[in-house]
Design goal:
Helices cover about 35% and strands about 25% of the residues. It has about 250 residues and is of the alpha/beta class. The chain has 2 domains: about 160 residues, 3-Layer(aba) Sandwich (Rossmann fold); about 80 residues, no CATH class. Helix 3 crosses helix 4 and helix 3 packs parallel to helix 5.
Length: about 250
């Protein structure tokens, strides 16, 4: 069974088509990178996959079940989780409290009405295990505002993992990281078990080629190539698109 199957996916914004007949399959346990120039439609695709946007046409299946019209919450319940390009943490809370909230699935407005979250022993142990796996346990009592940006990105991934997803969507997980933080991020992602299928959007080729088994290349809302790392490296059309985008940005 495939973890994710996308067939003929299209998305229109008024008279503008953002995604054109997108089709691909991802196997259980596979590590996949989605790449392409700015504006290629990568994040838009993620927004459709996790239910933030509804497809104009096409079908999305998660572990054999049609999820095309399901809500984001329903997709999470079926095993999909996502991190975002920009951090979405509760900056006024500690690393630990952010993690406990992710396990609780409660709204921040109710936070003050509850007894201290650390009193929930089972959640505390789960948080300790999760933060430990991301080398963040020593930072547990620090407010999110005081930890480094790289640590914030790792915390975001930890929160996405709190729901024990079977499919994890990562939108530029290394965005804004230093070279050393980027190396550490790649190492952390490699530690994820194969019971979790991972799809990431990335611009950084060190991350892409250091992590992915399969690469899907987008350009103007269309897939122009997909294959192994070696196949994408040799693809002349991919080279042309990236050279053109660099000339335009320059």
């Amino acid at each position: 069974m495939q973890a994710l199957s996308v067939k003929g996916l299209c998305l229109d914004f008024g008279g503008l088509r953002a995604l054109w007949d997108v089709s691909f399959d991802i196997h259980i346990g596979e590590r996949v990178a989605i790449i392409g120039p700015n504006g290629a439609g990568k994040t838009t695709l993620f927004n459709v996959l996790n239910g933030q946007l509804k497809a104009t046409a096409g079908r999305v299946s998660l572990f054999g079940q049609d999820i095309t019209r399901l809500t984001t919450y329903e997709r999470v319940h079926l095993g999909m989780s996502r991190s975002f390009q920009l951090t979405t943490l509760f900056l006024n809370l500690t690393v630990l409290d952010n993690t406990l909230l992710a396990f609780q699935g409660i709204l921040p407005s109710r936070f003050q009405l509850l007894k201290p979250l650390s009193s929930y022993r089972s959640l505390y142990h789960k948080a300790r295990e999760l933060l430990g796996s991301m080398a963040l346990w020593e930072k547990r009592n620090e407010p999110v505002t005081t930890i480094s940006y790289g640590e914030q990105r790792k915390l975001e991934i930890a929160l996405a993992l709190a729901s024990r997803p079977k499919l994890l969507l990562l939108d530029e997980p290394n965005c804004g990281l230093t070279a050393s933080e980027n190396t550490e991020m790649i190492a952390q992602l490699r530690k994820l078990g194969t019971e979790i299928t991972v799809i990431l959007v990335a611009h950084d080729m060190d991350l892409v080629f250091g992590f992915a088994e399969k690469i899907i290349v987008f350009h103007y809302g269309k897939i122009i190539s997909q294959g192994t790392c070696d196949e994408i490296r040799r693809d002349e059309r991919v080279k042309e698109v990236y050279m053109r985008s660099q000339e335009t940005s320059g």
